[in-house]
Design goal:
The protein is an alpha+beta fold. The protein contains 16 helices and 19 strands. Helix 15 packs antiparallel against helix 16. The strands form 5 sheets. A 5-stranded mixed β-sheet has the order 16-15-17-13-18.
Length: about 500
């Protein structure tokens, strides 16, 4: 309580031109090509820029590039802005783009994002502000590849080991904000970049309060000590009042994410498809959506989200069937005298802790014994997920507007630093992913991806669970705020408070 009172005093003293938010886990590396967790990515987005991005309508928007042109189906030319500077005052140029590309594809760097660049034949500098990219073949995400943020060549060209570099906690970027304060398990402070190439952000400072406890986060939000935050459905339905609604605008929309239980497919228990199917049938996803989300969610049926062309509407939600689940487990060699037992690991500071408990209870009805292991996020990521030391994990993925199955579902992505940490392998899925990479016709591409969708859901490498709604609240003193398909933060440099 004393700590909270001190925090209240500190916050009251902060000037009005400060945007206050929270973060529940420590960022691992504030480096765009190494940021594989949501906390790192959230901080990184303020500090770095990509060549292009999406606007509020999910259309291509110029950032470090002022324009682009396709010379032919495989040659892409970027014309760069000439008025961009790194936060240390050095000019941005084509050298930085080439350096970033070479770094991402370097065998010394372990990054899942390298998969997006494997389709490139060459990147070359035409002049200081013109870059030529040649693809090996027509590639459906030729432009989207360059939504990867760019690194400073002049800072990192002599770095011996980027994986452990001090840069990852003291980055230099071209973005709207500069990192002023960062330490583990402490608040993160960013200040407006006075030389930002669009214009200096209207809000001078962003403070991320480190709040691993979700109840403390909600208390600060209710007290008006945070300007932007998110609500759980329970909080929205039962725990806020009219006073809160007068203080905050509430924006709700389907999130671009889904929760899942992933199996370590190297483990003998989960190599058996009967076991995976039985576990899927034992889960009541509809109950999860109702109990966990009060109806502010829908059941997830597969790896690509509704509303995208890759979504397969013919794959229907799995209905709980305890009887069939028990029969399948019996065929796999499990019964009440020899029950299937496994450990389900997840992280603290999220609703997944409660979801894990519900899943544990549901699976018990089918005679399955689930032991829970709940860990702090960085410990969970670094000692369980990435080293692949788990039986099953409960996690969530954020999914792009135009999905690329390679990084999660291709067998080649089962490697150090790769996102296919469950070890999924299906030769037909690999073949179709490869086929789709060179398919630029959207209708043909979507048809291929719908096949991939069906094959993956039939294999049950994950149990796809829930697509939650995103419920964001913003202090009504802040304007202009406009909701969009990519969220409310798309125009933050225009915000005033």
């Amino acid at each position: 309580m004393k700590k909270l009172i001190l925090l209240l005093i500190l916050i009251v003293s902060i000037d009005a031109s400060t945007l206050r938010m929270s973060i529940s886990a420590n960022p691992s590396r504030i480096n765009p090509i190494l940021s594989t967790d949501s906390s790192s990515s959230e901080i990184t987005q303020w500090i770095f820029n990509s060549l292009i991005t999406y606007d509020k309508n999910a259309k291509i928007k110029m950032m470090l590039a002022k324009s682009y042109e396709f010379k032919n189906k495989t040659t892409l030319i970027f014309h760069l802005r000439k008025n961009v500077k790194w936060s240390d005052g050095k000019p941005f140029s084509a050298k930085d783009v080439l350096f970033t590309y070479k770094t991402i594809i370097s065998p010394k760097i372990f990054t899942p994002y390298s998969s997006s660049f494997k389709h490139i034949k060459s990147v070359s500098i035409i002049d200081d502000y013109t870059v030529k990219v040649v693809y090996k073949y027509p590639y459906f995400q030729a432009l989207e590849t360059w939504m990867m943020e760019i690194l400073p060549e002049h800072i990192l060209k002599n770095e011996k080991n980027l994986m452990t570099s001090k840069f990852n906690q003291a980055p230099i970027g071209t973005g709207p904000y500069i990192l002023k304060k960062f330490s583990i398990s402490s608040d993160i402070v960013l200040v407006a970049n006075p030389n930002y190439f669009i214009h200096k952000p209207n809000i001078d400072k962003i403070v991320y309060h480190y709040l691993p406890d979700s109840s403390a986060n909600f208390l600060m939000l209710k007290s008006g000590l945070l300007d932007v935050g998110s609500l759980t459905p329970l909080q929205l339905e039962r725990q806020i009042d009219e006073k809160f609604k007068k203080k905050f605008s509430i924006y709700e929309s389907p999130s671009h994410s889904y929760s899942y239980m992933g199996f370590n497919l190297r483990n003998k228990k989960f190599k058996n498809p009967l076991v995976r199917k039985a576990l899927s049938l034992a889960i009541n996803r509809q109950e999860l959506a109702k109990v966990m989300f009060f109806g502010h969610a829908k059941v997830c049926t597969g790896p690509f989200l509704p509303g995208t062309g890759a979504f397969n509407p013919n794959v229907k939600p799995v209905k709980q069937d305890i009887k069939e689940a028990r029969e399948l487990l019996k065929k796999a060699g499990y019964d009440k005298n020899h029950p299937l037992t496994f450990e389900l690991s997840t992280n603290t500071g999220s609703t997944r802790t409660y979801m894990a408990q519900i899943l544990q209870s549901q699976l018990k009805k089918a005679g399955v014994i689930v032991k829970l292991r709940i860990m702090e996020w960085q410990a969970f990521l670094n000692t369980v997920v990435m080293p692949k030391r788990f039986e099953a994990v409960l996690l969530a993925w954020s999914v792009g507007l135009k999905p690329d199955a390679y990084s999660i579902w291709d067998s080649k992505s089962d490697k150090k630093g790769g996102f296919n940490f469950v070890g999924y392998k299906n030769k037909e899925v690999d073949r179709l992913i490869k086929k789709a990479e060179g398919t630029v016709d959207n209708k043909k591409f979507n048809k291929i991806y719908q096949k991939i969708f069906k094959l993956i859901t039939d294999d049950n490498p994950y149990l796809f669970l829930i697509i939650p709604n995103s419920i964001t609240v913003v202090n009504k003193k802040i304007h202009p705020v406009s909701p969009s398909i990519i969220g409310v933060m798309h125009n933050e440099i225009e915000w005033k408070k």
